[in-house]
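Holo prediction — beta-D-mannopyranose.
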Amino acid sequence: MIGDKLIRSPLTRHLSNPILTPEMMPFACYTVFNAGAVWFNGKYLLLLRVENLRRETEFYVATSRDGVNFEVSDSPINYPLSELEQLSSVKAHRFDMRITPLDAKFYVCHATYLQWGSSIGMAETTDFVNFKPIYTSMPANRNAVLFPEKIRGLYCRLERPQDIDGSGRMWVSYSPDLRYWGDSMPLCEPTPNWSLRKTGSGIVPIKTEHGWLEIYHGTVMTASTENYHLGVMLLDLKHPEKIIAAPKEMILAAELPYECMGQVPNVVFTSGAILQENGVLNVYYAGADTRMCLAQANLSDLIDFCINNA
Ligand code: BMA
């Protein structure tokens, strides 16, 4: 039977998977995937990427008391275009929101496709209803995620500048004000076969006494598809461009039908996780760019996995 020989990893899929599918949405849609995730007002909150039946993308908030059963809002978020997005002759296509709580606000980073290619967009919100644009980068960059605190006095983000063929690997950049980004350094993560083509950030890095824990994606081209996997690593607390431990083993691969079949087959992709009080990390991920799923791990097991497999 498919699924009885899954890879061994600290991550375990939730039995209710997939936890949110297009059929479960309160309105007709084509896909619901790549959600940002954060703890908000005593609830688990997902910021869902939803494609309607015209295949236009909008973002909906879903909330939950148990982290598994989510209630989806009726209307999309209100997020006006940034100055640069307004200039584009191609309508901005924003996707993959990652949510960072910082300075009593929530910052989101996302990709935005404009006439010039893929840029990074950043915005802020306090209520998840109205979002205020902060900044849009020049192309070609994406997969940005802001660290949840300043590092050596500066804002810090992971990002993935893109090569001409769409490949690329993660970098770290710093900013005094969230608008001017520099001091950029490559991460130099390992290149096992599951991340040969590209890597990109996943969850908001989690601060641990052993370093920043980051779950990220890596891809490889096969004869038929570009397969997406998840890996985990620890980054230095003061200089996150320095890797402390980055196992060459992946921790999640597309293996089950809901990860292998959909609009983009063989994809597991995360852009958000929520750490629970009992130390269990809820990793929200999408299967085949079509539906939302949940995998869980003890944070301490992920740390041990990094240290023991580096
Ligand atoms: C990446 C992004 C993600 C998507 C993934 C797999 O390039 O566009 O949004 O989940 O491809 O299709």
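READOUT: The helical segments are 83-87, 257-260, 299-309.
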